[in-house]
Amino acid sequence: MNPAWNELGKKYRDHEDILIAELTCTADVLENGVLCEHFHDLYGLESYPSLLYGDPLNMKVYDEFGEHRSFSDMDSFVQNLKKRCSPSDLDLCEERTRIKIETFLEMEFSMLKQKIADIEKTITDAKLGYLKAIEDFDAYYKTFLEVQEEAVRLIDVGEPRPERLGEYERMFPSMETLKVSALSNWKIVMEDAYENGLYIMNDIVGKGLVSNEKNEESPGSDEL
Q1: Helix, coil or strand: residue 165
Q2: Which of 126, 169, 180, 197 could form a disulfide with 186 if both were Cys (CB 3.0 to 4.6 A apart)?
Q3: What mean pLDDT comes out for the span 13-24?
Q4: What are phi and psi of 23, to 5 degrees?
């Protein structure tokens, strides 16, 4: 698939609205402590390579079973994607989304940047909460296995089953639930960020579309 993917990237390399990108996923840390397994947990992916498309906050899986990964298949898919609603194409937007974008466009630049920062902090906090839950579970499970091994050794020599083993066995459901809940919370926060227009706001700021942006360093500024 790699030659076909590279060819696709070359074709759309300079496209204004289409980005073809790849993320090399190994056992190494990807970004800020997020491992490949966590990335796949977040998007519900089961295999490599996995192809995703759409809004970074609400991505969809393309060709889950690997049956349509030739250059012609992928290129046809890209060409048939509908141009989506955006600040530059309000005529493609549903009324609710158009109103939301128009509201963003009328906001003070500093307020829009603060709104983006607040949402991004929520995402970061949720991600860190998930990573902490994974870390706690891994530490618990490592000790649990050690306790199991010690229990087997004791039982083999005629010692009673240690109470500590029962304690760790009873902890397992709650530790597993904490991990699953943290992942669910991260997903919900990402979905909320999408619904609240984070990608749209970043698009507005990135393209300088805020209509009443003020230059804080202009000659009329009171800042010293």
Answers
A1: helix
A2: 126
A3: 81
A4: -125, 115
